[in-house]
Amino acid sequence: MRYDVVGHFAKYTAEGKFTIPVAQTFSLDDWRTALEISQSGRAHGKLILLPTAD
What we know:
Shape: extended
Number of strands: 2
Number of helices: 2
Radius of gyration: 14 Å
Strand order of the largest sheet: 1-2
Oligomer: single chain
């Protein structure tokens, strides 16, 4: 990975010029399901684990 371009992508994202597709979100309790989907190659975007609201 070219880490020298990460700052550029962050700027483009903030400006709305670049988006990252989110396939699905999961609670932390469902991390195993997210892992299975990730390893299967069925995710068409990022899988996001959401923290619990304490």
